[in-house]
Amino acid sequence: xxxxRAAARLFRPAVxxxxxxxxxxxxxxxxxxxxxxxxxxxxxxxxxxxDGSAEEMHFFGASAGVERGYHVLTFDGPGQPSAVxxxxxxxxxxxxxxxxxxxDFLATRPEVDPRRIxxxxxxxGGMLAPRAAAFEPRIAxxxxxxxxxxxxxxxxxxxxxxxxxxARRARAPQDEELDRILDDAxxxxxxxxxxxxxxxxxxxAATPRQFLATYLDYHLRNDVAERITxxxxxxxxxxxxxxAGNDRHTPQPQQLYDxxxxxxxxxxxxxxxxxxxxxxxxxxxxxxxxxxxxxxxTLGS
Length: 301
Description:
- By secondary structure, this protein is α/β, with parallel strands linked by helices.
- The chain folds into two domains: 2-150 and 220-299, Alpha/Beta hydrolase fold, catalytic domain (Rossmann fold), CATH 3.40.50; 154-215, no CATH class.
- The protein is built from twelve helices and eight strands.
- An eight-stranded mixed sheet has the order 1-2-4-3-5-6-7-8, with helices on both faces.
- Helix 9 (190-202) crosses helix 10.
- The radius of gyration is 19 Å and the shape is globular.
């Protein structure tokens, strides 16, 4: 963070570190100005996901937004690096209560057009941002990079049990057999070892099973996705490490798209484009060009 802030001062316009009031503490973030004119402009609020930081969003949309004439606000919410490291704030499902204070902060900035604020979520943010948009009417456009309908399947797909059985047993007061299955999976699967290790920390879970039970609540089912009313762009990566789907279910972005009742667009990025990996890490120029083309059309930028 210290080195990023040192670099931020060198950009023109300079990238401004900001502190956003949130439930008695301050969330850290960065405000990117498209220019120093002070003229109200459309603004993109963006946040990361399960393990990424606000600083990383510089490369996943913030600098591209400035190039396209947008102000951009990035931030770490509960469960994300600065919030969990400095304040021990774990993730919370009701992400609208995180985004709400961020929008309150933006309302104090005269250079922000309050009628043209978009929200972009990356990775797990592709579920958190839609959750916020379902309950926060100030969001004028939503971008899910990539779309996530039920985050828990990234875990249950790697376990040797039926997903419905895992969900039921994870929430039981005690299940020593499932505890052993999870321990064995963590020992033998590097992806699960990382997911459970990091997940216990950011979800404030005492055991692997407690983390799993909590993470299984991170979904947009029960008509949450259907509540979204703003225009929504769902991005999809053909070979996503976590959410590409399998013989049990269709890809997560397609599931989210199918449940939306708002004006919606689905854009799939492919291996031929070099953009088929998780969050299109191999082709950011292409991904951001398409995303900001859509935002231009949607927000009338």
